[in-house]
Automatic annotation (TrEMBL):
Pfam families: RasGEF_N. Keywords: Guanine-nucleotide releasing factor. Signal peptide: none annotated. This is RAB2, member RAS oncogene family-like. Residues 97-221 form the N-terminal Ras-GEF domain. GO terms for molecular function: guanyl-nucleotide exchange factor activity. It comes from the Eukaryota. InterPro entries: Ras-like_Gua-exchang_fac_N, Ras_GEF_dom_sf.
Length: 268
């Protein structure tokens, strides 16, 4: 309710304290100011609070050691991390180590593939091996080495033989589901060996992983049945050089993309 250039000052509770024509004094008092038309002429500036910076110290990265180990024709890359407890009074825990197969002979690769100690730890090995084995071996040769490994364990304790057989059934199931084109009539002889072994140990009768061994044998048989015609193979033109087994173009595009993704995911 101002008059002219005067302004009415309202105190706490709406009490009229008196007219002023200077808003500077009002700001010093810390009250709002109403002009002649009832508009707000200005509010007191908010108090300036001191700025406080908060810092969060990130824990130091665990020291990493990497080295190679050779074992029975295979080369493993070992990664060890030493984690330090935040409390200096807590004893130092043992380092955590992981081991991945980097190279090896074909026999060593198959041994690692069926090794029950590493099954589930080196998660990328089986899928990478099954997708790329055709570059350096054949399906019958790989099946033969798997049969050799299982037959060599018949004299070992029953528990070890059963665990290895379960791993072999899991590998065959994954192989058939992921790469059914690998199983042709040329693999029949080695599949006969595997089926005979599974029959002797009781797995082909339904014993084993999920009782699906009998179904697996039937599915493999349907793939290698000599009565079923094989897929026609492209004819090589006269004078064409033989296909290079190390050429990346021999792999399906989705298999190659899958392996590149896996390599990127496990890169340290």
């Amino acid at each position: 309710l101002g008059r002219g250039r005067e302004a009415t000052v309202l105190g706490p509770g709406g009490k009229i304290l008196g007219p002023f024509d200077s808003t500077g004094a009002l700001r010093r008092l810390g009250w709002g100011c109403l002009g002649p038309s009832g508009g707000d002429l200005g509010s007191p500036a908010p108090p300036t609070l001191p700025r406080t910076r908060w810092y969060y110290a990130l824990p130091p990265q665990a020291p990493v050691s990497v080295w190679d180990e050779e074992e029975d024709g295979a080369v493993f890359t070992v990664t060890s991390r030493q984690y330090r407890p935040l409390d200096p009074l807590v004893p130092m825990p043992p380092p955590r180590s992981s081991r991945r197969l980097r190279a090896g002979t074909l026999e060593a690769l198959v041994r690692h593939l069926l090794d029950t100690r590493t099954s589930g730890t080196d998660v990328s090995f089986m899928s990478a091996f099954l997708a790329t084995h055709r570059a350096f071996t054949s399906t019958p040769a790989l099946l033969g080495l798997m049969a050799d490994r299982l037959e060599a364990l018949e004299s070992h304790p029953t528990d070890e033989l059963e665990r290895t057989t379960e791993v072999a059934i899991s590998v065959l199931s994954t192989w058939l589901a992921s790469h059914p084109e690998d199983f042709g009539s040329e693999a029949k002889g080695q599949l006969d060996r595997l089926e005979s072994f599974l029959l002797q140990t009781g797995y082909a009768a339904g014993k084993g992983v999920g009782g699906g061994s009998a179904d697996l044998i039937r599915n493999l048989r349907s793939r290698v049945d000599p009565q079923a015609p094989d897929l026609p193979k492209p004819l090589a033109l006269p004078g064409d050089p033989p296909a290079d087994p190390t050429d990346v173009l021999v792999f399906l595009a989705d298999h190659l993309a899958e392996q590149l993704t896996l390599l990127d995911a496990v890169r340290p």
